Amino acid sequence: MHAHIDWHPARAARRSSAGVAAACLVLLGIAACDEAAAPDPAQQDRIVFASDRDDANSGLFEIYRINVDGTGAENLTDAPASYSSLRLSPDGSAIVFESDRVHCDNVWVMSTDDAAAVTQLTGALDRCNRNPRWSPDGTKIAFTSSRDLNWEVYVMGADGSGATNVSQNPGTAAENQDWFYGWSPSGRVLFQIQDDARVSSVNADGSDLQLPFGDADDEAPVWAPNGSKVAFMTARDGNAEIYVMNADGKGGTNLTDDPAADLFYPGTGYVPMLNASPPDPWSPDGTRIAFMSERDGNLEVYVMNADGTGVTNVSRNSAGDVFGGWSPDGNRILFTSDRTGNQDIYLVNPDGTGLLNLTNSPGNDRDPVWVPLR
């Protein structure tokens, strides 16, 4: 295990200087300094995640929070249920998630400053609602809903108001099932048509529907931070690979080109939700892409440059390892691993060094979200 990780160099330097200054005494014009104290846990970033540690392997989870050094675990929900699809708002003030704590799966939002401030945004009359994600400006939330007796994509205000069907594909057959995947940087909604995995896009008000976007068998599209490219999974070459295409949906390029499965989300057995929308695989600066692959005989987490070069296995273990997200500065990667017999959360550098085990509970800890200090 790695003994110490400097999460944010500039911030760590400021805190270190402040700690040294506090420990210094000036006596008769001579400065004497003791070693700086350990960082105040209250001044650390946090990791929020779902866990069944209070009732291991029961299928009943809660939302927990820990410091980025793995200390200070606290239960934020105290309401055993199913919790998944945790996503941080753009300003870091709230987390949206799906849970069946009242009825089916519905969309909830929780303040990152006040854990008691939990609000249900969709209700029993809305049937089931899944995979919520914030718009880039934080004013809207897109999600998948069965309220029209088939799965379609909706957009609502961040307060739950004004839910609008934007996929506009009525009917109950397989070809009428639409699943939300994500937003473009400009605020367009990406979704997938269930029957042939074609990707489509639409404005947040339901206008300018574009069908299809990309090619058949493309899924899990994720826009690059600068909006110029879209990374996605596809089986167009006969096995799962990671591609990028231009923002207009053309010019697909195979980045992984390996006979093993290369994935953004690993499916049933690793991510316990239907048609999961994966964590953003792009590093914050858009220069690297994280993915999962079975090329070493088991599912592991890899990082490559945005052009497909420099592929590195960062989890390096015979267990099942699942990508969980990037730190805001792009210097750390979160992932979940069952290498100890149950799912725990780990941190590692993008080059595979500096492994840190953040959780070690008797239950399963998953769906980590990095919450920067505000």
* Helical residue percent band: under 10%
**Overall pLDDT score:** 84
Total separate domains: 1
> Would you count the extended β strands for me?
30
Please give the radius of gyration in angstroms: 21 Å
Main sheet? 4 strands, antiparallel
CATH architecture: 6 Propeller
Explain what the structure shows.
The chain has one helix spanning 9-23, and strands spanning 24-27, 30-33, 46-51, 62-67, 74-75, 83-88, 94-99, 106-111, 118-120, 129-134, 140-145, 152-157, 164-165, 178-183, 188-193, 198-203, 210-213, 218-223, 229-234, 241-246, 253-254, 262-263, 288-293, 300-305, 312-313, 321-326, 333-337, 344-348, 356-357, 365-371. With 374 residues, it is mainly beta. The protein has one domain: TolB, C-terminal domain (Neuraminidase). The chain has a 4-stranded antiparallel sheet, with no helix packed on it.
Secondary structure topology:
Blueprint: H1 9-23, E1 24-27, E2 30-33, E3 46-51, E4 62-67, E5 74-75, E6 83-88, E7 94-99, E8 106-111, E9 118-120, E10 129-134, E11 140-145, E12 152-157, E13 164-165, E14 178-183, E15 188-193, E16 198-203, E17 210-213, E18 218-223, E19 229-234, E20 241-246, E21 253-254, E22 262-263, E23 288-293, E24 300-305, E25 312-313, E26 321-326, E27 333-337, E28 344-348, E29 356-357, E30 365-371
Antiparallel strand pairs: 1-2, 3-4, 3-30, 4-5, 6-7, 7-8, 8-9, 10-11, 11-12, 12-13, 14-15, 15-16, 16-17, 18-19, 19-20, 20-21, 22-23, 23-24, 24-25, 26-27, 27-28, 28-29
